[in-house]
């Protein structure tokens, strides 16, 4: 036997060693059998030691907030959660905090298309860790890394959920955090339903005020003159929730009612990952000259330029945990027409946006992520009427666009956002 196995063998009680020999009968068979048994035993002991290390490192001690602040997330990915992590990192830096970043894009199989602007944490740095990943990824990452980055740090989970009730299988992740932040009050309400009393859940929307406001550049995207409506969605967020077919039907109804023509630009992310879903969408709009699909991979800056190049933003989603596209549209001065339910209702004010009527219906057809609860079915006739009026009525459209600058939501107000952050994170 190798020396580690021999050490384990000698650590066993004598009756157990004798029984192992007797069970195999012959000396050689006894050695082989003992080796196999000891190897299995060693694996069990190693796994228990691993679990003990993880538990020791992740046990919450309610440490005080201290710098630097490390944001763990999908910093390098063209993805809504990736953009959220990048915005949160910029907001922390804008508050004058020392910021570090850990990119998990490749860890979960996302292409790394963007540079990570903040440095990684140093080997002896502790401070605060904000994990901008949802509980399933957090639990997996913690288990596979034995919670090394959580040791000695105050841990804040930044989680987003799109329905009224958070999944019950998220509950174990509360054991790993000192508190939870969310991008909306809607998401916070859902998470409080399963949070233990010791974990405070607080909304802190994304700091959209940091995003640039580029001018229109239709030539960059080969877009024509005339009125352009934009809808955009990520198939990784599921077509059932984003509901592009409802938006397509509403646009076609609006086009038939309006007195002037319009082009709908449909920006799709994840077409390569869901080829069948995208093929069905492409077949639905094939031959329709008023609808253009766009699958080009765009940076956040390019996406902002695309949004700035359009006139109206449309979304008939069933539910949102924040509603990044709509918030960006308002920040860029664009009127929005969107389902008037869930997190986006928190920043879509009547002065600059058109909230579409809806009915709440049971969740169905999306068992992979959203398995129960309710979400909204937008009234497509109401959406078409509101969109047709916006297409036809240029003065009204300009009135709504001008009103976006007066939207007082926290995401658009630097002083208010920084004040909220400092109350939540009073670094010593």
Automatic annotation (TrEMBL):
Signal peptide: none
Record Gene3D superfamilies: Glycogen Phosphorylase B
Name of the protein described by the UniProt record: Glycosyl transferase family 1
Organism, scientific name: Caulobacter segnis
GO function term, MF aspect, one: transferase activity
UniProt entry keywords in alphabetical sequence: Transferase
Pfam families in alphabetical order: GT4-conflict
């Amino acid at each position: 036997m190798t020396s580690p196995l021999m050490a384990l063998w000698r650590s066993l009680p004598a009756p157990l060693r004798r029984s192992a020999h007797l069970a195999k009968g012959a000396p050689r068979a006894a050695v082989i059998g003992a080796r196999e048994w000891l190897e299995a035993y060693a694996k069990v002991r190693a796994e228990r030691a691993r679990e003990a290390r993880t538990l020791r490192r992740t046990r919450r001690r309610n440490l005080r907030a201290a710098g630097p602040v490390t944001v763990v997330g999908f910093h390098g990915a063209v993805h809504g959660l990736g953009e959220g992590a990048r915005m949160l990192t910029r907001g922390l830096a804008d508050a004058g905090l020392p910021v570090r970043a850990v990119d998990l894009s490749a860890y979960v199989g996302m292409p790394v298309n963007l540079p990570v602007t903040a440095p990684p944490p140093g080997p002896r740095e502790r401070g605060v860790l904000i994990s901008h990943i949802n509980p399933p990824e957090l639990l997996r990452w913690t288990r596979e890394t034995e919670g090394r980055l959580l040791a000695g740090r105050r841990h804040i989970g930044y989680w987003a959920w799109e329905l009224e009730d958070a999944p019950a299988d998220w509950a174990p992740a509360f054991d790993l955090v000192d508190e939870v932040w969310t991008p909306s009050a809607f998401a916070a309400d859902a998470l409080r339903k399963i949070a233990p009393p010791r974990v405070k859940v607080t909304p802190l929307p994304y700091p959209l005020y940091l995003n640039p406001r580029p001018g229109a550049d239709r030539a960059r995207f080969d877009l024509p003159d005339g009125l352009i409506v934009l809808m955009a969605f990520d198939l990784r967020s599921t077509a059932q929730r984003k509901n592009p077919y409802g938006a397509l039907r509403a646009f076609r109804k609006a086009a038939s009612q309006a007195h002037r023509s319009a082009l709908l630009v449909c920006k799709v992310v994840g077409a390569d990952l869901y080829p069948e879903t995208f093929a069905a969408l492409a077949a639905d709009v094939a031959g329709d000259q008023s609808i253009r699909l766009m699958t080009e991979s765009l940076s956040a800056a390019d996406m902002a330029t695309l949004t700035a190049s359009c006139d109206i933003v449309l979304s008939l989603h069933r539910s949102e945990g924040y509603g990044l596209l709509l918030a960006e549209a308002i920040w860029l001065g664009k009127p929005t027409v969107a389902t008037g339910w869930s997190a986006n209702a928190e920043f879509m004010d009547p002065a600059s946006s058109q909230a579409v009527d809806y009915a709440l219906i049971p969740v169905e057809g999306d068992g992979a992520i959203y398995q129960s609860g309710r979400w909204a079915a937008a009234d497509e006739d109401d959406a078409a009427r509101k969109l047709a009026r916006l297409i036809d009525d240029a003065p009204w459209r300009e009135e709504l666009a001008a009103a976006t600058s007066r939207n007082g939501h926290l995401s658009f107000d630097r002083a208010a956002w920084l004040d909220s952050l400092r109350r939540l994170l009073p670094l010593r």
